[in-house]
Each structure stands twice: as C-alpha cells, then as structure tokens.
Amino acid sequence: MTLPREQPMLFFRERHQLPDELLVEIIHRAASDPQVHRRTHLLSDPKRFPSLESFRTVCKLWRSLIDSNPTLWAFLSADSSSPQALRRAIDKSKNALVVISYGAGTMVREQFIYMVAPQMHRCKALWMSGEDLIGYAPTLRSLLETPCPNLEELHYSSYHGFTVENGNQGETRLPCFNIWALQNNAQKVRVLHFGKLVEWGVGSGLTNLRELKLQESEITVGRLVGCLKEVPLLRSLVLDNSQRGIDQDVGCESTVELALLTRIEILNASASFAHAVLSRIVPPSLKQLIISMTNFDLPVLQLDDIETYYQNLILSLVETHGTELPISIRAGENFMAVAVADDRTSREFQLLGDQLGTTEDRSRCAKSIYDLTKWWGSGSGPSFSLHWGINPSPHGYYSPMNGHYASIDLDFLKALMEIVAVVKIQVSSAIFGVQHLYRRLSYAVRGRDSEPPRWLLPRLVTLEIEGQDYLDGDMARMLRARYTAIASAQRGPGAPLPLSMVKLVRDQASEPGPDHTGEIRSIVGEKHFRLVMKSNRATLSREQPMFHLKDSHQLPDELLVEIIRRAASDPRVDSSTHSLSDPKLFSSLENYRIVCKRWRSLIDSNPTLWAFLSADSSSPQALNRIIQKSRNALVVISYGAGKMEREKFVDEVAPQMHRCRALWISGDESKGHSITLRSLLETPCPNLEELHFSFSPGFTIKMGETVEDGRRSETTLPCFNIWGLQHNAQKIRVLGFGQLVGWRMGLGLTNLRELKLRKSEVTVGQLVEWLKEVPLLRSLVLDNSQSGRNQDRGRESTVELSLLTRIEILNTSASFAHAALSRIVPPSLKQLIISVMDFDLPVLSLDDIKTYYQNVILSLVEAHGTELPIPIRAGDNFLAVAVADQETSREFELSGVRLRTTQNRSRCAKSIYDLTQWWGSVSGPSFGLRWGMGPSEEEYGGSMNPEFLKPLMEIVAVVKIQVNVGVYGVQHLYRRLSYAVCGRESEPRRWLLPRLAILEIRGHDSMDRELIRMLRDRYAAIASAPGGPGVPLHFSILKLVRGQRRESEPDHTGEIRGIVGEECFSLEIKRNM
User: Fold this and answer.
1) I want to staple 959 with a disulfide (CB 3.0 to 4.6 A). Which of 192, 386, 719, 926 is the partner?
2) pLDDT at site 754
3) Average pLDDT score over residue span 101-116
4) Are 557 and 346 in contact (CB under 8 A)?
5) H or E segment to which residue 855 belongs
6) How is residue 179 annotated by DSSP?
7) How far apart are CA 587 and CA 569, in angstroms?
8) CB atoms within 10 A of CB 258
9) What are phi and psi of 15, to 5 degrees?
C-alpha cells in the first residue's frame, strides 16, 4: 500500500492549523539552543539568528510570523563578532523585553556594552560577569548602574579581586549589591544567580524571589539560613561548590521553613555541608532533591537525622517507581550515583558522588549508597539495578569514542555486592576490570560464626554485557558455579536465583576469538539467552527517526499535549442538534497513543484531552470510558451529534455537572424529554463558565398531572431558570443563545466576555440595555437577529464598551446593522464583520455612524498598503469587500449574501461602490475584483450578474481582475472594458477601469474572440491618445490559465500575446482543468 502524493504522512487540515502563538513557540524552540558558555559562564545562543533566517525562507506564513514577532529576536548577546548582527537584533526586537548577555564574548566588550546600554530599560534578564572585565570596570559599572525597571532575572559572576577606580581615592571593591535593580527594584527580581559571592546584603528586599543559585561562593550555613528567611516565595535553591567557611557555624540550630520550595540542588559539596543545609531547611512542598558530593567527610548520608520531609519525598518516589522497575545505581571510575524519579509529577531524588579522587572517599560513597538502599529496603523494599558505564539518559551506552573509559573500582564493588535487592546488571564495552565482577559473583562468602555461606547478589536475574568478548570464559565459569549451587541447594536459603535473561551485545567488526556463546547459551537455556550483533554502519533504525530533535530542542510536554489536542480535535456545531460535536476526537487519540511510549504516557496522563462528554457515539460504554479517562478534570458537556437517546445521555452526564465548565444543550427537539432536561439544567454546576442554549419559543414542560378547567397544566421554561445563571452568573464568561425571546435584567453577568445571539427576537433598544450590564464584553455576535428590528431605531440611548474588540452582525438587514452600530461605542474595536441579506438601505452610511468604526477601517487600509489591492469578491448571489491586518488580528468585512432580488443585488453593489469612494477620498487604496474566488483562492461558481457588474465598473481604483473557471457571463466584462462611455454634458468620453493593469482569466477559452476585441479597442485608444485623460493603461500582466487544448480547437493565445507583448503575457497549462 502506497500513499498518494495528495495524502502526506503528516497532514493537518485548515481547521487543524496551529494557532500563530503556538507555531511561534515551536519556531522559537527549534531555532534556539541556549547554553551557558564554558569560558564566560554566560548564556549563549549562537545558532538562534542564523536558524531564524533559515526558517524565514520556509514559506510566506513563517516569514510573516518571524518578522512580526519581536520576542523571537529579543536576545542581545556577543555571540557574533559583528556589530551589525547585534544592531539588527536590536531593531528586530522593537520594543519587546530582551535578554542581555555577553554570551560567547566574541565582540569587543566596550563596544558591546555601549550598544546594549540604551536597551537596559527593556531588559528582563541580564547575564554579566566581572571575572574577565578588570580592564573595563568603569564601562561595566555604568551598565550595572543604568536603570532597568523591568529586570526580573539577574545572573552575575564577580571576581574576588575585581576592583573599580573611584575617582582619586584609589580603588574600591564593587559589591554585586550596588547593581541598580537590587538597590531600586529588588521586589521585582524573580531569579537570582550569583557566582563567587563573598557576602550577602541583609535586608535586600527580594520578597518576590523564586529561584536562587549560588556558585563557588564563600557563604556559611548560618548566613545562608539568614538569607533564606528574607525570600518566603522561593521555589528553587541551587548551591554549587559552596564550601568555603562551611564549618564555622554548622552547630547553629536556627532553621527556616520555605513553604513553596520544591527543588533543592546541592552540587560539588561535602557530605557535611549537604547534611548541615538539609537539617536547617524545612521544605513541606519538596519535589526534587539532588545531592552531588566530591568529599565524603561523613561516612554516610544520615537520613535518620534530617527532616522527615526529605525522607517522605524519597519514600514516595520509591512507592511511585514501583517494585517491577528497578531503581538504577550508576557507577564509573570516579563517580557513583543512585537516582529515582517520577516523570508524571516531575519529582526526583538523586545522590551522586562525583570526582572522588581518594580511596577513602570512594569507599564512603559506596557505603552511603549501600546504607540508603538498606534504609529503603526496610520500608517499601524496592529492587535495584547496577549500571557500569551506562548513560543516565535513556539513549543507551556511553560511547568509547567519546573517551568515557572507566574501570570497575574495587572500592565501589565491595559495597555494591552487599545490596541483596539487586536484580539487574548492565556493563558497557567502555568498562575495564569486568573480571572482578565475575569473580565475586562466582563464589559464596562465609557468614559469621555459625551462619551458612551466602552468594552475593542472590536475586540477580538479568545480566546485560556489551563487548567484553575476551572475558566470556570468566562469565561461563561464573554461570556454571552459580547454577551448580542452585542445583545442589535447590534454591535453599542463600542460594542464587537462575538468570531469566543473559544478553550479550557484540560488534560484528571485532576481531575473531574463542567463541563461548554456545556454552553460555547451554548453561542458562535457549529461551533465557540473547545475542545481539551491532554494526557501525550509519543505518537508520527505529530508534533513529528521520526527523530528529536534540534533547535541548525537545518540545516540552505541555506544548506537545496542545499539538496533539489540536491535531485530534475537529470541533463543529452539529446542524441538527445545534450542539458542539467532535466525533473523531477519541478515535484520533487512540491512534496517537500507539505512536511511541512518550505520546502514550502523555495522552493517558492528561485528563484534559478526554474532557469532552458528548453523544457523538451511540454507546453508553464509550461515554463511561471517557468519563473515567477525564478523571477530575473540568469537562465540556454537549449533546453533540445526538446518537444516544437523550434520557440515557442526561442520566450519564448529570453526575458530572459539578465539574462542567461548558454546556451545550438544546430544547428544540426535546419536548418529549422536558422533565429529564429540566433536571439537568437545575443541577448545580459551580464551575460553569460557558453556556450555549438553543430553544424554540413554544418549548413547554410538564409540571405534573394537575388538571385545571379540564386541560393539562403546562408552563413555559425560560432559559434563565438554568442553575448556572441563577446562582453563579458572575462566573459565566461565554454565553450563546439560540431563538431567544426575552431577556431577564439584573442577572449579574458582570464577568461576561463573549455573547452570541442566534435567530433571536431582539430589538436594538433591548440589546443596548442588556449590553450596559456586561462592561467586560470582548466579543459580540448577532446572527440572523431581525425580528422587531424597526421598533426602536429612533431611540438615542447608546452604550460604551471599552474592552469590546470584535463585532459580527451576520445574516441581517442593512437597517438593523446600521442601527446597532450607531448605538454601540467601541473604543478598542479591532474586528468588524457585517453580512447583509436584505439591503433595505441602499448604502452602509459610514458618515452617519461612530468614528470608531471609521477609524478601524481606515487604519486597516493604511496597514494594508497601496501596493496590495484590497480584494472585492463576487459570486452568483454574494458580493464582499474585506481588508485585514494579520499581524494585529484586525479585520473588516462587508458582505452581501444570498441576494435573491435584483434590487438587493443593485443596492449591495452600490454599497460597495460608495465604500470604495469613501476610502478613496481619505487614503486612496487600490482594489482587485475577484469573480468566483474565495478569500484564500478556493473556487466558487457564479455568473457575472449585470446588477453587480455595473457599479463595480465605476470603481476607478481597480487595478486587478481575476476570473475563475466556474464563472459564467465573462462576455459582459469584456464588452464593458472594450468601449468608452460618454460623459455628462461637456465631459469627454472615458474608459471603464482606466487603471486596470493586471488581468487573470482561468479557463473561458471560448471567449478568446471577445477578449481579443477588447484588447484591440483598449490598445487602439492608448495609441491614439497616449497618456490623455480618461485613456486606459497598458496591461503589465495578462495571465491565462488553461487546460490541455484539443488539436481541433482554435488557439488564439498567439494573437493575444502579440497585442500585449511577450514580456507582459503569461500562459499556464493545467491538466485538471
């Protein structure tokens, strides 16, 4: 089975297109590869701007997004030696908040500081070092003293001997706390990173600090505790190589509680310093604890002596980790680490002994690991795996090519062999001394006194060895000894278990030697043995996808979840139930679960992906499964496609109303289920923020069996009896009503952001009074709201909505649209869309409505520019003019749709003409006429209606015409373009559309004779009176798009080419036309 070219492997329909802000974030993460430069210790991103320039060439959309998003360029660094590159980044970043970092330091320092100093007012993050700037102290001081009111992140590394000249008074040390932001705006700083800090300024006012990192700093534990008492909102604490003076006050008993602290890292420190810090900090919300020791001056990590918060974290991680998946212990020549993590909650514990140079430190490190595993074993009893030379990430082995050679250190090995719960061992080919491991596994050690001999690692069941071919004989002897013990003791106390898997990974290119694999296979058994042969050839495997992102470029989980949601979801309003439907959502999610382990984990662990309860499926079991998958997430409840019986659906979803955030329900076809529907609407829904309710004016419910005057008692159910509107109206943000008859005043919808009324009997006066109660409204949509439109048009009451940015008046009359616009004052308007079915007014009287509408239309025309014509689209029964500015999401559109009568067509075309004349009198734009083409080149049919054509031919500013293949009556256009019309009285004759310069015709081969006559007439007029008043212009482009011509058909393209000229003519042949 092959995929056709029209069916790509990764396919997004237009409705699945990622929103601009999400695509910008993906571009940002793909282009950016931030790293701390190893020489300057500052943030560097050298590939950022070259990558952005490359991405600009992908397509027009990407170029527009990259150019219009200054945040992508908001990184000012010395990664390039060119001042022009830095200047371009400054210009492109416009007024966005920027990160300023000396980075790779390839520019002259004084020049860099001179260029970025004027941008300090918009600096949000500053990375600067004084270590190598001794000769540039005055310049650096001027930068640090520059006001930076927006600074939230400061990374500053100073040099111990860094001094600055202070006038004639010699040299004075510059403390880091003399920085302007710390002296004048400390409460705004959220991230602080100091390198080589000597002292801390008490009373710094860093009350909003979230992250603190101290690197190579001379700070005592007591001083540290005092500092932490001033930062109650701290979330992350990193202490890297902070060892000087640590013993001065270890005995101090003062502690500090940090209720929001979730992450502690103590790196490259001594065991005594780590223990002293942990015993003085009380972190109730701790999630991550990482300790890296270079000096084990304490023999063990004394877990029983520190706060229970650390113990609880470690134990909870072990319980989450489970006993089936072993906790990994990694070992190398001079390091050893134990780590356990829960990926779903981002919790982590890690104890690492690193750069252990002395034998004593190695022994104490291994003893600490052993004691920790023993402490774990006394509680939840997890299992462990030993990894020699294995990468901590899941990408496999350390490569010997990268120099990661190590040997099995005997000081480590002795303690590790005593961990009874080890069930798995992995050894890389980059490890030497594996014979020591085999020997210790091949004999039993004697117990004390009368204890029987015991085998080391008796629960070991999995052994994976890469390389080490020359030691296969030692492995075979070890296996034979263990299996002999198993047979003789019959798995008695102290006897080892048989191995369930022995895996040997070998290189095909290795030199041949004695082959012991058959002997090993016979000892452990065929089904417990596996031999894997690897090749060094660069071939693509399943672990090497064709599209690969480095770890630093990997999308974060929340962004990937959003992409999966948008790809899986295809929401639409069902035409029969008027409710939101998404029939392919859950089948798509099930398909995405099989992509890879990460996608499956993300989809299963994110209940928001499943939080859509609808009747799109007829199976109650399917709905129950979705309810369970959504867990406690807030859900959308909608009758959707209505495939389930209403009563069953309501019974299933009613218990979930307490977590309903959006409700789509209709009473149109529910007369027989009124009692059930009423029970749902009266159910408490305290989290409801979005309500869409469609009902018919005659919708009634049974109120019991009471009989009055011999007739059944029935009472109308107003939509305002819904629990969410009666008890929690202030929480509603989106409200959509269909077929609304009356409005209840004083509902308290003070937080409403979006309002949509569809097919509702609403007068303009009622609408204005309602809008006065919703001051925070952002979006107003009135769809087919025509009933009673003339009842109160003459009233002068208006309403100002300062936050309203979008107005849509759809499928209505020109008089209703004009009356509504003249009564609403929207100072912040960005989008105005008017779709008229009945032109009971001949024009849209722009001069008569508020200047806010005029301003938004004029500003859009100015942003659109005069080079690109404003499109006027025409079809059989519609005519529309639209202009948009995609960069600011502003839009205006006036359209006449479903214009059945000649009078409506004429008035619509006249409205378009008057609008273009009004524009022309102010800003003078040009226009393009498009027959049978939608906004994005999609094809429509239609005919050149004479009622449309006549006013449009009077728009002098038309410079371009496009006609689609499905349009009839093109001869009417050619005829009107082929002669001059008489002016009034003494006015000279004038040609229609005299500025027309581009003509594109798709199809219409049969009309080529008419086209030739038109061209001859216009070009003859040009020749007779070149440049005269009223004379048309030459065509700069005449483009014909044709299908494959039959041999019997006449070909007139050569004659057309001869009239307009070779350089102005274009012929495109398409097979499918």
Assistant:
1) 926
2) 94
3) 82
4) no
5) helix 851-864
6) S
7) 10
8) 21
9) -70, -15
Cβ 961 vs Cβ 1000: under 8 Å: yes
Which helix (H) or strand (E) segment holds residue 140: the answer is: helix 137-144
State the Cα–Cα distance between residues 144 and 129, nearest whole angstrom: 11
Residue type present at position 835: S
User: For residues 196 and 215, is the Cβ–Cβ distance under 8 A?
Assistant: yes
Cα–Cα distance measured from residue 587 to residue 594, given in angstroms and rounded to the nearest whole number? 12
> Rounded to whole angstroms, how far apart are CA atoms 823 and 830?
17
Q: In whole angstroms, give the CA distance from residue 675 to residue 701.
A: 7
Q: Band the pLDDT of 546: cuts 50, 70, 90.
A: very low
Express each pLDDT in 988-1018 by its tens digit. Answer: 778 899 999 999 999 888 899 999 999 999 9
Q: What is the DSSP letter of 933?
A: B
Phi-psi region of 279 (alpha: psi -120 to 50; beta: other; left: phi over 0): alpha
User: Strand 43-44 and strand 35-36: pairing?
Assistant: antiparallel
- Whole-number Å distance between alpha carbons of 819 and 343: 58
Report d(CA 650, CA 931) in Å as an integer: 48
The residue whose two tokens read 């000769």 is 135
Q: Please, which residues have CB within 8 angstroms of residue 485's CB and are 6 or more apart in sequence?
A: 444, 455, 495, 496
Identity of residue 54: S
Of residues 217 and 234, more confidence is placed in: 234
Residue at token pair 């790293």: 35
pLDDT value of position 983? 65
Task: Give me the pLDDT at residue 468, please.
Answer: 85
> What is the C-alpha to C-alpha distance for residues 444 and 481, in angstroms, rounded to an integer?
10
- Residue 420 token pair: 């009874």
Q: How many residues does the chain have?
A: 1073
Lowest mean pLDDT across 192-201, 315-324, 1037-1046 = 315-324
Give the chain's mean pLDDT.
79
Spatial separation of the C-alpha atoms in residues 988 and 1004, rounded to whole Å: 33
Q: What is the DSSP letter of 895?
A: E
| Distance in angstroms (rounded) separating the CA atoms of residues 956 and 945 | 19
